[in-house]
Each structure stands twice: as C-alpha cells, then as structure tokens.
Amino acid sequence: MKMSLAWIQSHLEGSASADELAKRLTECGMNVETRESVGDDEVWDVDVTTNRPDAMNHRGLAREAAAAACGPLKPLAVKVAEGTTPVGQAAKLTVEDAQGCPRYCARVVRGVKVGPSPAWLAERLERCGVRPINNVVDATNYVLLDVGHPLHAFDLAFLKGQEIRVRRARAGEPITTLDDVERKLTAEDLVIADASRAVAVAGIMGAANSEIAPSTKDVFIESAYFDPRSVRLTARRLGLKTEASHRFERGADRAMARTAVDLAAELIVRLAGGEVAASVLDSNPDLPAPCEIPFSLSRLSAFVGCEIPRELTLRVLSALELAPHVAGDTVTCTVPPHRVDLELAEDLYEEVLRHFGYENVPSVLPSEAVKPGTRLGTWPLTERARDALAAAGAAEAFTYAFVAEEVEAATAGSPLAGRGAVVALENPLSARMAVMRRSLLAGLADGAGGNLRRGAERVLLGEVGRVFFERDGRVAEQERLAVAIAGKVGPWDAPRQADFLDLKGFVEALLAELGVSGTSWRHSTAAVLALGEQAEVVHDGRVIAIAGRLADAAAAVFDVPSALWVAEIDLDAVAAASHAPVFEPLPRFPAVTADLTVRHKLALPYDQLVAAITAAAPPWLEVVLPVVRYRGEGVAPDEVKTTVRLTYRHSERSLTQDEVNAAHFALMDKLGRELAVSFS
Prior knowledge:
By secondary structure, this protein is α+β, with helices and mostly antiparallel strands. Helix 5 (119-127) crosses helix 6 (135-147) and helix 6 packs antiparallel against helix 9 (256-272).
C-alpha cells in the first residue's frame, strides 16, 4: 500500500525523521518495504496486514507512529460551514435493509463548480497510486486515503426524486458500473438506489448513471457503514475489487462515517465552492456500546515471558486511543470502533508487545516441567504384536484412522466393530476422511486390493493400530491387530491359492506368540465376512478375534480382484488373556510319535476332537498336530477322515514301544465310546 511520508507527518506533532519513522513503524508490524524520494517527499510501500483496516490510511499509520514514540497524534479537526437550507429539503434518505447497512450518512453541497484539483492534492493522490479525476471526486478519494473511510459522490440532479434508497437488488436487476461494464445483480446484493433504479453497488462501486460530470452543480455525498460479509460476497461474485470494497470487507469504522462525510463536504467547498446544506442525513446516529477488555499487568508479563514496564503499557494503549483505566493490577481498555480486530485480552497483549519489541523478549525455554504423554494400557502388547507380525513374515501397514462413511459401513458388520457408535468428525478434510474407523480391515483391504490390482501374486499385510467408538458422548479407543492374506502361498515349486486354513494357522501363530492359549474356534455370521467361510475365536466366553474371507459386498467397495482372507484381533481382550512365556528346559529323553486316523462326522470341530484326545491320553502326551483331512472315495458325504500325529514323551525316563502301543489303543477305545468315531 503506497503512502506519502509528508502526509503521515502532517498528522503528527514533533519532527521525527523519515528514517526514525520508517524504522519504528517496521518494528511495530507496519513493514515499510520500499522508500522512493519524490521531490521533498517520500513514497513508501507499507505492508499492512489484512486484519488492520484501521491502518490502511495515513492517519492510521500516524496513530501507530505515535504509539511508537514518534510524536503525539494531532486532533482531527472538522469545521463545516453550513448554509441555511435544511438538507431534508434537498434530498431524502431511506434505509430499507438496516442489517446490510447499519449506518448511512449523507450531506448535500449545492452550487459547486467541477474542475481540475489543485496541484498539491493531485500530487498526493498520484503518489498513492490514485488517478486524479476532478475536484469533487478527488476530495472523496483524498478523505479515503486520509482517514480510511470510503465515500461516494453522486450528481444530485441525476438522482430521480432526489432520493436515496438502500435496499436489496431485484433478481436480475442490471447496473452499469463506473468501469462501463453492465452487470446483473441478485436478490442477495445490496444496492444504493434512487426512486426507480440502482445507482451504486453498496460498498463497491458507483454506477455511470449518476457520476459527477463537468456540468454537475449539486453533489450528494455518501458515507456509510456496510456489513462486511455482504460486501465480500457481492464483490467476489461480481469479480470487482476496489479501494472501497478492500476496506469494507475487513470492517470499516462505524463512527467515522459521520466524520468522513463532514471532512469531504468541507474539502469540496474549499476546492469547488458551493454551500453545504444544514445538518446531515443519518440513518442511525446511535453507536453500539463500546467493548471493554480488562487484563492483568502481571499476566501480561507472564504471557510475554519477561517484565513489561507499566509506564510503557499505558503509554502505548493511550496512544492507540484505547483509553486504559487502571485499578490496581487490572487495566480496562475501551475498544474504539476503528479497531475491529480487538476482542480478547491476548489481542491487547499483542498491541503492547509489538511496540515493546519482539527482539527484546529473551529466548528462554519455559521453566514448567513437561509431563510425559499417556499411552493405553495395552502398549507393551502392541510392541509384541508388531514383532509377531514381522516374525510371521507379514509386511506391516500403516493406514489412516479417518475413513469415508461408506468405507466404515462396509467393515462395521462384526462383533468387534459393534462395540460403540461411529465417531464423526466435525470438520473433516474431505469426504474420504469423514469418520473415525471402528475396524482396521478397511485400510488393509484397500491396501491389499491396490497391490493385487498392480500385479502382486501374493499379499500378506498386517497392522497394529487403534479403533475408535462413541460411548455415552465420549470417544473410546482400543488397540487392534489385523491381517490380510491373498494370492499364492506355499513353496515356489508348488504354489496354491490361499484359503481359510492358511489364515487360521497365521492367527493361531500370532495368538501363541502373544501368550494366549485355551482358545476355541466357532462358526460366525459377521456381515463383513462371507457366510460359511468365517469363524470367531473365543476365550473364556469372549470373542477376541474374527477371521474369514472378506464378503463380496465389502470386497466390491475396495475393488479387491480376488479372494481376500482377513482377520482382526482385539488386543484389549488379548491383554487380559495373555500370560508371560515360561521357560521350559530342553527334553532329556526321546519322543515316540504315532499317527492316528479318525473317521468322524463332518460336524465335529477339530478343536473338540483334539480336546477329547488330550483328555483320553496319558499325561505324557506332549502334543497333537494335524497331518491331513480326507474326503472322497470310501468316505460318506457327511464324514471326514482326520489324521493327527501324537507325540509321547516322559519327563523322567524313556518310553518303551509297548507302553506307547498300550496307551495308544486305550485312547482309541475311549474315543470310540465317547465320540462315536471309528478308525477305519
């Protein structure tokens, strides 16, 4: 933003040098980026942040310079010599939309003579990047750059009925703005209109049908306060960026509306002659009660991290026209209407701090002790779970905890995911991250599907992560372990497609590694898994895992091209069932193995068969391992032959073959009686 040094200095008492002014303004946040000498003046390019519309003018910068100890700010003198004709006889004002225009002030100047502006005014405008037009229009632009309040001058003769109405535009209402472009308005746009047509887009640009011309004799001066949001939306929709909209969008000074119209009327009379009509048209002269912000001087120093002098604090706040009132340690500031950015005590801290100097704040770390973060009680188990995944040959995956609603719904149909309501984000980054996951299967299915679509022949992924539930208005978290298997498994020379038994063996290996024993597998009906190809793992009556083939509906969501076998383990439940590994010495005596083929009903679960064998065997039965299951010729459709390998070993002596044979036949006899099985 271009500023004139001489213009800034005209608002200050004293004789601060140009170098001192530039240095102190930059130090307090009004960065003077470039300086260019023009005659006996300098043109500065000053970077004013968007939250400071009060400083986008010469008086605003002078106020900042006064707070930076560059001299007191001069009072703003306004002296308007009014005529005898009441303004109400010359023009009429009606504000139909007080929400879009909380205040509208206007003055009428009769008998002006439009012509070129004097050299001093034209030069000041040109130095600030504004093209001089004529003495009336230049006067309004001068006041804008001087005190920061936008104005507009109408030719009163062109206002039908000598009337101004502030209203919403009619849908499709046309207006040709001063840039000679015809625009179509909507019912959301605020306009300034006369008795029959729009003559300006409120807060943005006037229309060509009432602009000041060389023949203009009577001038209607507008100075208003418009709703920032209304101006911003209309300017964006119309693609219009003007000096007026730039300020109104950020928040103008409601009180300055009256002062600015007086300054403009006074300047027009000086430049173009004429007489100012008596009084002012003012739609709402009553201002809202000013906001008061109290803060503690000791808290200010604590906030900054060093002692802030009391005298400096009060001097800065007074120079910024915040009227500080001191009562002990408390300072109460009254926020003037031009400071739309001040709302909190911390805002006042910033005002003091930037004039105190950020460079004067010592670089010292806070003395408060930092408390360590908290972890879920299952965290030791999660580390073991990651080690177990790596030991089993799985590639560890890391997926997002945020998922799309449809993705979450596709994997929510399981007993593990139904332990609470879904947690929705209030302000998600995108629709793909709208809710928190209740299952790890979504991320793994998506990752596995991507690998398979890109030609991977084998996928073995695992993840340890958290899932989230809403319970009684609060968010609960749980640790989970999930795996996904797809494609070919087995040795390189005899590969085959992965099936349920591969998944089951993988899950059992993980549970064993985590110290969980005594589990049982049973049929499940989880919607996320294919019916008839799934199971749930139970420990002490509690479901701690599910496993099976991903259901076709869920696989379609993730575009998985082939069968995907997945499992999810509840690490919270595993933590309760887990036990620390116990060292066992290496056996001193040899083992004796014997295979046993059992013909039994297909409905008999394998774990029940093993449990019955273990119960019927002598105490020196060490382990039962599966060998093969056979269904086919010679076996009834509802039967199966299961071959298991029994390992016998005594801890104190070597077993004889006769002992093993006797125990083996006794076991077969007992199984035949208890389970109604045969051994043929």
